[in-house]
Automatic annotation (TrEMBL):
This is NADP-dependent oxidoreductase domain-containing protein. Belongs to the aldo/keto reductase family. Pfam families: Aldo_ket_red. Residues 23-278 form the NADP-dependent oxidoreductase domain. It comes from the Eukaryota.
């Protein structure tokens, strides 16, 4: 299995043998070609080589279009970037093949580097509905098939709980390469982290900045002041220093640039511990723990 070079961006090796950049641009709420183009331009310029989209973000086509237009500007090719997208919860189950192929054709970039089941539940089914496990299994089988065809280079899951992960690991033919979940100092997810380590699944963080709300946390601010970094850089570094890939979202070119300056400093053990001590199980996004 060959590895993909992402020259300017530090990477983690996935269980497929392929590499994934540790830093990616989140794109939730980036809408319309103009905004997506501007953010992708700033990100490529700042050294980002990964981009995180999803069917529900309704920006896959714009992301593909922006990349096709901008890669030559930076002397880059398709192989130099890592694109993630996700199956919408409305397509969980029998519509998974159609949903994944729709993402693939919207992006129009030959292949998708990483495709995730976005959410363990199915849109429209009540929480706790017993059809959920069957739908998840059907979705995973479709992703495995498209992985076999080379359309999805890596496949994975998002928002899975430890119970969902155990069930998937018992039944899959291809193990998930990545689990993408909410992760920041107020939600440290120790059980999921150690399960991923045990299973050889890459644990990836979303909402590292708590959707912006953690940027004004007093401990974050104090650590940032001590190490003369921005609060966002501190929060991203806290994850990276634990080996966890991050996906900060910004639509602002200057913040996109500053958020990428996270590989040239180290947080002390004391600062890491102070941040980790904020863990209180607080979520800024959806809570999957009640999905059957
Ligand atoms: P986030 O990255 O934690 O925070 C984004 C917010 O912080 C935006 O409002 C942004 O505003 C602001 N921000 C970013 N950098 C900043 C800086 N340096 N200074 C001040 N404000 C800053 O939130 P997120 O979008 O929820 O998560 C990141 C990505 O993870 C998403 O975009 C998406 O790709 C992924 N995600 C996945 C899931 C899932 O279910 N799998 C769920 C949530 C998120 P501006 O844009 O104005 O800068």
């Amino acid at each position: 299995m060959s590895s993909t070079p992402f020259s300017s961006s530090p990477c983690v090796a996935l269980n497929t043998g392929l590499q994934m950049p540790l830093l990616g641009l989140g794109t939730y709420k980036l809408c319309g070609l103009q905004d997506v183009h501007r953010a992708v331009d700033a990100a490529l310029c700042a050294g980002y080589r990964a981009f995180d989209s999803a069917a529900v973000y309704r920006n896959e086509a714009e992301l593909g279009k922006a990349l096709r237009a901008l890669l030559p500007k930076y002397g880059l090719t398709r192989e130099d970037v890592f694109i993630t997208s996700k199956l919408g919860p409305k397509d969980q189950g029998e519509k998974a093949m159609e949903g994944a192929l729709h993402s693939w054709s919207q992006l129009d970039l030959d292949y998708i580097d990483l495709y995730l089941i976005h959410w363990p539940g199915t849109q429209g089914l009540p929480v706790g509905d017993e059809r959920n496990p069957g739908n998840r299994a059907q979705s995973w089988a479709s992703l495995e098939e498209l992985h076999g065809q080379g359309k999805l280079r890596n496949i994975g899951v998002s928002n899975y709980t430890p119970a969902h992960m155990r069930a998937l690991m018992q039944s899959c033919k291809v193990p998930p390469a990545v689990l993408q979940v909410e992760f920041h100092p107020r939600l440290c997810q120790p059980e999921l982290m150690s399960l991923c380590k045990q299973y050889g699944v890459c644990f990836q963080a979303y909402s590292s900045l708590g959707k912006g709300e953690l940027l004004s946390d007093p401990v974050t601010l104090d650590v940032a002041k001590n190490c003369e970094r921005t609060p966002a850089q501190v929060l991203l570094r806290w994850a990276l220093q634990q080996g966890v890939p991050v996906l900060p979202k910004s639509s602002n070119p200057e913040r996109i640039q500053r958020n990428a300056e996270v590989f040239d400093f180290t947080l002390s053990d004391t600062d890491m511990d102070r941040l980790s001590a904020l863990d209180c199980g607080q979520r800024f996004c959806w809570d999957p723990s009640e999905v059957a």
